[in-house]
Write a structure and sequence with these properties.
- Helices cover 85% and strands 0% of the residues.
- With 71 residues, the protein is mainly alpha-helical.
- It has one domain.
- The protein starts with 5 loop residues before the first helix and ends with a helix.
């Protein structure tokens, strides 16, 4: 499914007889949703990157503990 930009959606709503105010609000809401979805995607990527480093640090700590225990 192709995502339309807000201006295209606004023009299509106007051409189908939707009042101008309502078309503007609907187009604005769609744009806000896409901004929110983009922010969530960026946040998830950052969390995944941080979790990688946390796993690496945790693995190092476990290896260090075993190294001390079996000296």
């Amino acid at each position: 499914m192709a995502i339309k930009d807000t201006l295209t959606l606004y023009k299509e709503l106007l051409s189908t007889g939707v009042p101008e105010d309502q078309a503007e609000i609907q187009a604005h809401q769609l744009g806000s949703f896409h901004d929110f979805a983009g922010n969530i995607t960026t946040l998830v990527e950052k969390i995944e990157k941080d979790l990688f480093w946390m796993r690496l640090i945790g693995g190092g700590m476990i290896i260090a503990c075993f190294g001390v225990m079996f000296k």
